[in-house]
Every structure is written in structure tokens, then in C-alpha cells.
């Protein structure tokens, strides 16, 4: 069970990196501020989900 949560957490962390890079590219190209804001909001949500799965993995590892 712990392995499953670890894998899911890593997938979400990778998604965080992808969204962060897309936001930075948008900002460097002088793109829409609205797009940059939406990407950063998505990043925060993905970070929260990754954190939840990491905490679940730690919880089940201790059992």
C-alpha cells in the first residue's frame, strides 16, 4: 500500500514541475497574466495533493 502512495505522490510531484515550468515559460514569453495565474493555482493544488499522498504513505509505512 505504501508503494502505491509513493508512486502516486511522485506522479503528482512531476505534474507540479510540469505546471511550474509551463508557468515560467509563459511568464518569460510575456504571456497572459491570467494564464500564469491559473497555472500557479494549479501548481498549489497539485502540491497539496502530492503532500496528502506523501502523508498517507508515511502513515501506512508506520503501521
Largest sheet: number of strands, sense, barrel closure: none
Mean pLDDT: 93
Shape: elongated
- Low-confidence residue ranges: none
Estimate the strand proportion: under 5%
- Class by alpha and beta content: mainly alpha
Q: How many individual β-strands?
A: 0
Output the number of helix runs: 2
What's the N-to-C terminus distance? 11 Å
Helix content range:
over 70%
SSE arrangement, N to C: HH
Computed over alpha carbons, the radius of gyration is 14 Å
Domain HIG1: 1-63
Protein name: FlaG/FlaF family flagellin (Archaellin)
Keywords: Cell projection, Cilium, Flagellum, Membrane, Transmembrane, Transmembrane helix
InterPro entries: Hypoxia_induced_domain
Structure write-up:
- The structure is a single chain.
- With 63 residues, the chain is mainly alpha-helical.
- 89% of the residues lie in helices and 0% in strands.
- The protein is built from two helices and no strands.
- It has helices spanning 2-28, 33-61.
- The radius of gyration is 14 Å and the shape is elongated.
What key phrases describe this protein's structure?
single chain; 63 residues; mainly alpha; elongated; flagellum; cell projection; FlaG/FlaF family flagellin (Archaellin)
Task: Give a concise summary.
The protein is mainly alpha-helical. The chain contains two helices and no strands. The chain is elongated, with a radius of gyration of 14 Å.
Amino acid at each position: 500500500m505504501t508503494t502505491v502512495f509513493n508512486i502516486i505522490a511522485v506522479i503528482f510531484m512531476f505534474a507540479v514541475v510540469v505546471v511550474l515550468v509551463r508557468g515560467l515559460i509563459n511568464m518569460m514569453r510575456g504571456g497572459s497574466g491570467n494564464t500564469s495565474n491559473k497555472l500557479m493555482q494549479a501548481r498549489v493544488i497539485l502540491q497539496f495533493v502530492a503532500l496528502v499522498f506523501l502523508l498517507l504513505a508515511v502513515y501506512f509505512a508506520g503501521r
